[in-house]
Amino acid sequence: MDKALVTDHLRSEGDINTTRARQDWASRLKHSGTQTLLQRDCDVFLHQAMSTPCLDALQAAQGIYLEDTAGKRYMDFHGNNVHQLGYGHPHVIKRVQDQIAQLPFSPRRFTNQIAVECAEKLTEICGGELNRVLFAPGGTSAIGMALKLARHVTGNYKVVSLWDSFHGASLDSISVGGEACFRQGMGPLMAGVERIPPAVSYRGALPSPDGGDVHYADYLEYVIEKEGGIGAFIAETVRNTDVQVPSKAYWQRVREICDKHSVLLIIDDIPNGMGRSGEWFTHQAYDIEPDILCIGKGLGGGLVPIAAMITKDKYNTATQISMGHYTHEKSPIGCAAALATIEVIEQEKLLEKTRNDSEFIHTTLLAMKEKYPVIGDVRGIGLLWGIELVKDRMTKQRAIDEAEAVLYQCLNHGLSFKVSQGNVIQLSPPLIINRQQLIHALAIFEQAIADVCDQYHYCNKENEHDSATL
Ligand SMILES: Cc1ncc(COP(=O)(O)O)c(C=O)c1O
Question: Domains in the chain, start-ordered, CATH in brackets?
Fold first, then answer.
């Protein structure tokens, strides 16, 4: 009997573990140690669509590579977005080891040198008015703190967010998130959330009068005015999973609207911060400044969980409220990892490198789009690229089976990435990747695309759509 079970609303954040292609993949994992570990994992952990039962079992990670229990290596173009520096960067390891030896924990009410240095450095790279920091053990908690701060500052509890967005898995985060697969059966959720359509260039919900996306921002103003009592607008500057890259005009208009209506702009840069866009933080590529910035994931150098909310001095007014009363608030180990990560990005000039690599990837992917009709759209920023596979460039019907075929062929050949919305291949390499490795990875990807075109009988057609970038 076919045990594959898929419902389309699950195909949002990432690829899922209930498909036929996934079962075929699992049946090909023959290494007995791997099979045993996967079975024990399956027996002990709660099952979830995007993790357990797992894809494979790991025994090591170094640089851009993951290594499974059979000794097979994958270039990691997914990394849950902690992998800006790849894995096991010697500088981060050394800093963290030294910190563990000296001061492994700092109970609340005490401060410590490394936490202060890390917060100071973060405010320096944020620039502008972002000069107040609060650490948290994970991104979701940073979002929770931001939502509370916005309520406190504005006196308004209502929030506008985007459909299809993800801001973490806790109840407050899924309340503002836009993906049904996280909210289903979880209500009642936090009251007062209004969702608006995201600025999507390729298949947006709102017809564009002029090919632009500023009308999506105008819709924010419409909702703020109609609904009243809105305290905050929360969004990723660039949607990480299916790589939606709004225009500069969109973000500047959003900033203008928030200012006009005294609505706080909360930017969630948890997956894309720390250099992925070619800037420290993605909003810097748009010349705007949020009122509250949430970061996490790669902040800990792929080693330690740590996140932060960074805001402005003028919002430092909740002195008698605990916004983030987290046990690991001024974690010396987390802060050592974060400071070391910033140092590596500076020393290895990873922001400049990311901007250069970005051009290379963009050109290479556009050339593939010319050749392969299954590629409907190519979009990205820095070292974050989305390749949308479609059955037909006119209808834009999502090529879901084709995307899965590309994923599993690439995994077979040692390249790991995620598939979002069922048909968007997301390529998110470590920023430390060298050009040769990048070329190799893109060659594996191209071969899989070529094979899928053969297998599904796509024939070359003229290019109908332009790609979108910032
Ligand atoms: C955009 C975004 N916000 C928030 C989070 C939550 O971060 P964490 O898993 O560290 O709680 C994630 C995690 O995937 C994310 O992608």
Answer: 20-87+350-461 (3.90.1150.10), 90-348 (3.40.640.10)
